[in-house]
Amino acid sequence: MSATNVQKLCETTREKLKFAIGKMELFLNQHALPQLVTEPNEEELQFYQGYLSDLRHLLVFSEMSYEKLGVALRRATFDESFAQRALYNVYHYGVNNFFYPKNESYSEDGRYAYTGQDAIRFRKKPVRPARDIILEITKSYEELRDDLNYYENDYLTEKRMQNQV
């Protein structure tokens, strides 16, 4: 991939992350565990604890990636290797953490991906704001996954081959 393409990909990736970060920050600043738990029982409490934990982790990974992409784009001379590593981290940590959250409060059901319906399925029915935030940022992470899927396989293969030569 040429340096120009990598730079343009960094710019578009950064914009998509900025959108998702803004939505997550707003949600997390306005909602806490007591506001989300409607029926105080152990199962619901554990669900929302895991949900909020996953969302906070996703926010941190996304913010770190956003900053690294900013560094790559602000340098006087564009460091293609640094930028590619930053893009790999967006995919590996951000996109994967969105689609495979540690606490599995939601997951993607690929059967719905091409039907126009929401592909995200929650383990337990969440309150409306908790559902809406995930559905609002899904499109950004789907686009990031499509844009950056190269970095999951080809980037690592390329790096391994460079080390073996």
Account of the protein in words:
This protein is mainly alpha-helical and 165 residues long. The chain has a single domain (3-164), classed as Butyryl-CoA Dehydrogenase, subunit A, domain 3 (Up-down Bundle), CATH 1.20.140. Helix content is 73%, strand content 4%. The longest helix has 33 residues, at 42-74. It starts with a helix and ends with a helix. The mean pLDDT is 88.
Can you describe this structure in just a few lines?
The protein has 165 residues and is mainly alpha-helical. The protein has six helices and two strands. The chain has a single domain (3-164), classed as Butyryl-CoA Dehydrogenase, subunit A, domain 3 (Up-down Bundle).
Estimate nothing, just give the exact number of structural domains: 1
- Content-based structural category: mainly alpha
Q: Order of strands in the sheet with the most strands?
A: 1-2
The CATH architecture designation is: Up-down Bundle
* Dominant shape: elongated
Reading off the top of the CATH hierarchy, the class is best stated as Mainly Alpha
Contiguous low-pLDDT stretches (5 residues minimum) are: none
Instruction: Assign a percent range to the helix content.
Output: over 70%
* Assembly state of the chains shown: single chain
Helix count from the secondary structure assignment: 6
Straight-line N-to-C gap: 20 Å
Major beta-sheet overview: 2 strands, antiparallel
Rg over C-alpha atoms, rounded to the nearest angstrom: 18 Å
Number of strands: 2
CATH topology: Butyryl-CoA Dehydrogenase, subunit A, domain 3
- The average pLDDT value, as a whole number, equals 88
Pfam families: DUF3907 (PF13047)
Protein name: DUF3907 family protein
InterPro entries: DUF3907 (IPR025013)
